[in-house]
Amino acid sequence: MRVLYIGAHSDDFEMMAAGTFAKYAKQGHDTFVALATNGNIGSHVHETKEEVAKIRYEEAKASCDIIGTKLIWMGFDDEYLIDSREVRDAFIDAVREADPDVIFTHPKMADFLPDHDITGYLACFARICATVPLIKTAHPAIKSIVPMFYTAPSGFAQFQPEYYVDISDEFDTKMEMWKCHKSQQGEWLAETYNTSFTESLENANKFYANMTGTGAMYVETFTLCKTYPIGAAEPHKLLP
To answer: Residue 23 CB: number of other CB atoms within 10 A?
Structure first.
C-alpha cells in the first residue's frame, strides 16, 4: 500500500501522524510526506528567510529518513499559502507523485493557522483533480479518487475522533522524528507560544489513548473525509 500525508509545515506531520506512518513503514508500506510551506518565517534568531527555509527542509528530511518516508517539498512561503493555480497544481502533482491508496491531512476550517485550513481544503480538492488527465502537471493522472482521513486539529478546535491508531510501540520513533525539528522547537514554538510542545504532544497522545478505554498508552486520532466520493466502502481497513 502507498500512504500520503499532506501537511502545511515541516513539523505538522510529526505532531499529528508520525506514529501512524511509523506503523505503516514497519508493516512494509510505502510512505510519502508532502509539505506545502517551507517554514521560512519561523525563527526569532536567523536573519534571512532563505536560511530558515534551508534548515526546515534539512530537519524535515532527517525526520522522514528515520522511517524511510519520501519527502515531497512544495516550498511555498510560510503563513502565506493561498488558493492559486500554482498551489493547486503543486498539490495535484504531489498526489500524483505519491499515487496513494489513502491520504491524511489537516481538517478543513478547524484550526488557528490559515495554512493548516487551506492545506486541508486543497488536499480534498487535489485528491479528485489528480485523476483528471486534462489537468497537466509533472506526473501523470492517477486512476481513481482515494479515501482521505483528517488528523486532529491544533489548539482547542472542536474535534470528535472517529478512528484511533494505537501508536504505543511507535511512540519513541514518533518522538525521535519530532526531535529532528530542533530549530522549530527551540527557536520558534517555545518563544512564540510560551509552552513546551514536546510535553503537549505526549499529553495529547495519552489523552486520546485514555479515551479509547483499550489500555493503549499512546494513540493518534482521525476522522474520515466525507466529501463525495469517500473512495472506500470500509475505510477503517486502510488504517495500520
So the answer is: 22
